[in-house]
Amino acid sequence: MLSAAILLLFLTYTTADFAGHGRAPHSESAPSYINHDESSVYDYVIVGGGVAGLVLAARLSEDPKTTVALFEAGPDPQGNADISTPFLAGALQGSQFSWNFTSTPQPTLDGAAPDLAQGHCFGGGSAINVMAYCRGASSVFDEWAEISGIEGLRWDNLVNDFRMSTHLEIPPQDPPYEFVIDKAVYDDGNVSVSQERQLVKFEPFFLESFKDDPTNPAKIVDLTSGKTGIGLQVGGPHAIESSNGTRSYALTAYGFQVAGRPNVHLNHGTWVRKINFKGKTAESVTYVKSADGSEHTVQGKEIIVSAGAINTPKLLMLSGVGPEEHLKELKIPVVQNSPEVGTNLADHHSAVVMVEVPDEIVSSVQLQTNKVLAASVQAEYQANGTGPLSTPGSSSFIAERVPDDVLEGFKKAGINVDFHLNLPKDRAHVLHQYASAPFQPDPQNLNVVSAFVALIQPEATGYMRLNSSDYRVNPLIFSNYFGSEGDMAVFTYAYKRLLSKMRSQPIKQVVLSEVYPGTNTTSDEDIKKAIDNSARSFHHPAGSVSLGKALDSSFRLKGLQGIRVIDSSAVPVLPTCHLQASVYALAEFAAKMLKSEKY
Ligand SMILES: Cc1cc2nc3c(=O)[nH]c(=O)nc-3n(C[C@H](O)[C@H](O)[C@H](O)COP(=O)(O)OP(=O)(O)OC[C@H]3O[C@@H](n4cnc5c(N)ncnc54)[C@H](O)[C@@H]3O)c2cc1C
Ligand SMILES: *[C@@H]1O[C@H](CO)[C@@H](O)[C@H](O)[C@H]1NC(C)=O
Ligand SMILES: *[C@@H]1O[C@H](CO)[C@@H](O)[C@H](O)[C@H]1NC(C)=O
Ligand SMILES: *[C@@H]1O[C@H](CO)[C@@H](O)[C@H](O)[C@H]1NC(C)=O
Ligand SMILES: *[C@@H]1O[C@H](CO)[C@@H](O)[C@H](O)[C@H]1NC(C)=O
Ligand SMILES: *[C@@H]1O[C@H](CO)[C@@H](O)[C@H](O)[C@H]1NC(C)=O
Ligand SMILES: *[C@@H]1O[C@H](CO)[C@@H](O)[C@H](O)[C@H]1NC(C)=O
């Protein structure tokens, strides 16, 4: 049994390394992982055991004659309660389960350098994310097809891959709130996508203020159905197992099912530092074991890089695939001059309004400071898998399109917003959400909710480069947040809108004080500072080894053989909401493509 004292330890966010000490509140089946055999030549060697890597390992090994070895740099998180308990998600950034990346100081943010943590364990981002499950505007996937030349990526076809990766769970008693969900876009896949049993207590206020907005009222819709990318998504859905309120992620959904298969070897604590080529053909990978620092090389007929949108281009560059000038500067022998590797790096990014709320609204701060409350929510979670701990502390979000007349106004003022005006009409520009945790410093331990608004169709993209030829050194990430005048204008409009919502009815009923930026922030100059000082990644980086640019229409790196990139790096354009659903679907799609090929 997980004791309240242990729970409190989790909640102080200080016990980063907890694996092995505590037990999850419910038992998990434990797959046994088989270590790889160094003399084999595998059909597929997969780098990275995150969302895409685990989907590929599971699907490609369905044929017992196909051999697969997967190498994950991070640990195996199974059984760790910080991972399985949805409310504790915030504690996972900066823990042993994350890559602790930051942007370089950004000129658009007056030199601020936002953090860009990524998942570092089996499950990758899906093990540490906040579990929002969304697909967004269907026109995005049609654009993927156009850019990549892969017709099958159109929404009308890709919806099959979204379906086959998920099943929908609606609580037995219809939840006590209004929501819309289209059951037809779910099937019997292993990612559990569930509606919440109950909204978190801040929710009704947040929801009402956007629903009843006089100028741009939000309609309650299903942002997973493909019908629209604009509207209010209520009560999740989240990638959470409804029956016991635990995280549903790539390890439980895909990793566990391969446990008994002799033709697939999942390795963890194995950091791939280089892909080795013979001429232009990738032949093997060299990895370092975290347990003893020893190096090993494994051969594959095909190498698939699924290390995520930051680590995939990093590994390619370390291996001699990237912009030639850059590689030469670092004295890395050039295998292929691929100027598009590391470019086109897109990310959703946001800024924060943090408010103090009454005790009835449970935040991570209150669970640290109020032991009685912490014990009671833990007892409920333990007994029934319900209550605050079974939620990510946020029930819904609103994806908005900035009205045309506002954009026309910017245009008249000489600001170029053509990109934003011309986006297909089903696309939202910005997304409002909140977390029951402090996103800005909270020295007095006030009970706070952090609302934020994110730019979800940014015009500007950034890029990444190596800082060293040493694989252990973090890369340089030029995230370029709010990097065009149009992005900045659209975002500033949206941030002011969020500020005004947080300062008026109905939200005002549950606001005891505005902790950030503070009600004295009203001038444009101060608002810009508030944006700079709270700018954050939504942790959805993508596009850094994009289809249609660095990759051809078989996910192969142009100019090379025996190597493909299948993960968020390949995503050519960001969806209009959270990214994981699209990466599951993209990997399902790619797995089918690979299985239908003879090589
Ligand atoms: C903090 C956070 C919050 C998020 N919130 C949400 C959310 O609420 N909803 C949502 O939809 N999406 C969310 N996301 C995004 C989503 O999780 C990612 O888009 C998704 O995980 C990307 O999948 P991927 O397969 O491309 O990479 P990842 O899932 O990141 O997997 C890459 C894996 O490769 C491993 N790896 C990297 N380099 C190497 C190497 N050299 N050798 C061996 N292994 C390596 C990594 O450790 C990692 O496990 C969030 C992400 C984060 C980090
Ligand atoms: C939660 O329930 C699912 C589905 O029954 C099960 O597979 C999983 O092991 C449970 N999780 C935990 C942590 O007990
Ligand atoms: C990230 O930081 C945590 C806390 O310092 C550390 O335990 C972890 O190893 C770091 N992650 C990586 C990949 O180095
Ligand atoms: C779900 O997992 C089970 C085993 O855990 C596996 O047999 C089944 O094929 C999986 N289904 C899908 C759709 O991945
Ligand atoms: C669990 O649920 C039951 C039935 O709703 C309820 O009576 C009980 O009080 C709950 N247990 C806890 C610890 O909350
Ligand atoms: C890049 O490397 C240099 C030299 O080792 C170091 O001083 C600098 O801090 C690094 N930059 C980043 C952003 O990590
Ligand atoms: C608002 O008031 C606080 C507290 O006095 C102060 O620290 C902050 O700098 C002020 N902000 C602005 C924009 O004036």
TrEMBL record:
Residues annotated as the enzyme's active site: 540 (proton donor), 578 (proton acceptor)
Signal peptide: 1-16
Glucose-methanol-choline oxidoreductase N-terminal domain ranges (all copies): 308-322
InterPro entries cross-referenced by the UniProt entry: FAD/NAD-bd_sf (IPR036188), GMC_OxRdtase (IPR012132), GMC_OxRdtase_N (IPR000172), GMC_OxRtase_C (IPR007867)
Binding positions for FAD per the UniProt entry: 272
Cofactors: FAD
Pfam families assigned: GMC_oxred_C (PF05199), GMC_oxred_N (PF00732)
Gene3D superfamilies from the UniProt entry: FAD/NAD(P)-binding domain, Glucose Oxidase, domain 3
Alphabetized UniProt keyword annotations: FAD, Flavoprotein, Signal
PROSITE patterns in alphabetical order: GMC_OXRED_2
Any GO MF annotation of the entry: flavin adenine dinucleotide binding
Transmembrane portions of the chain: none
Domain of life of the source: Eukaryota
Family the entry assigns: Belongs to the GMC oxidoreductase family.
PANTHER family: GLUCOSE-METHANOL-CHOLINE GMC OXIDOREDUCTASE, GLUCOSE-METHANOL-CHOLINE OXIDOREDUCTASE N-TERMINAL DOMAIN-CONTAINING PROTEIN
Record-given protein name: Alcohol oxidase
